[in-house]
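Deliverable D5.2: sample structural annotation.
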Amino acid sequence: MATILEAKKITKKFLYPQELIILNAIDFTLDEGKTCAIVGKSGEGKSTLLHILGTIDTPTTGDVSLFGVDAKKQNREKLRNQHLGFVFQAFHLLEDATAIENVLMPARIGRNSIAKNSKHYRHAQSLLEQVGLSERMYYHTDKLSGGEKQRICLARALINDPEIIFADEPTGNLDHITAELVINTLFSLVRKNNKAMVLVTHSYELAKQCDQIVYLENGHLSLLERH
């Protein structure tokens, strides 16, 4: 099984107002089709690590390789658009656009055809059906609930058929029942489409659904055994 994401000796320092080491010489690997949860207390740097792994942020020192190539040698914007999908706690949706228009946004940014009956348009329709929103496809997102908005985000993350999904506390703004629905949908999509995933969560119960769990504390990452 091929390793598609590898980080070596990742360090992240903040110098103001005083030097603070958030991540300290972290190593991380992810194989294709596998899921990994990053857990830990608030403020330990879980989101910072995810952003570095997803090339949204850069480490102070250390290297990240995606698909066998150093991220510094790749066009990071193109890499994120074509090969990585993101789901955040905040929805980052265009509220005056419809559900399907939001799902299609990464395809539009990638300069793909999103005309009706195009490959990406049909894919967006299929993804919205998979997340249970076929009847909300043409609703403007400002008319939808939080759970529906997050399911649009799941579909949007998969529109360009990325190899890796990065999910950062994707249910943080949702009530318990809605959160469970969204998480079940997320894992169903990831497994059905054979995607790898890095999931940041504070919930150990949620983390146990992943193939691997790592714990971040005091800047160091350790592998957790299941109980």
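Annotation notes: Strands lie at 3-14, 20-31, 35-39, 61-66, 69-70, 84-88, 164-168, 196-200, 212-217, 220-223. DSSP finds eight helices and ten strands in the chain.
The annotation will be released with the project's public dataset once the embargo ends.
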